[in-house]
Amino acid sequence: MTPTRPRFLLLIALVCGVVTWALLHLVYSRLPQLTWSAVPALLIAAGVEAWQGRILRARITGERGEPAPPLFVARMLVLAKATSQVAAIFGGVAIGFMIYLSVMLNASTPRADMVTSGLTFAAALLLAVAALWLEYCCRVPQYPGDQRDHDDDDRPAPFPNH
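Structure (tokenized):
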């Protein structure tokens, strides 16, 4: 499994932003005012993932507690990858709202929706950073005596000659 690339997350956010902006041209007048309830949920998830990354990193390096089981680390890695993509989707939708609403700030409802969208984008950005941090913390550190060549990871092990 390869590390998540930030440009992939940026692409997800861009596509979601464009789709949201296009859909808002059709349906914004029929939508209720945006709620801010996504903001605390995203912030709580970001805090939990950042804290879990800190603890997991200490367990992997042997600084704290017993070593983390490999299956647990794999589950945390999958959680981090999925969460970073969900954060990119939320951020992209928030960007789409902000771009659409940027020309309507003289009315109170679009102005309130713009504030909510901005806070949602900031919370989604924090969640993406926390998810990337958790993904980074799942890596096994390389020690100075480790002579393994990482370019050989994709090649199968050689068969012994008989």
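The radius of gyration is 21 Å. The chain has a mean pLDDT of 89.
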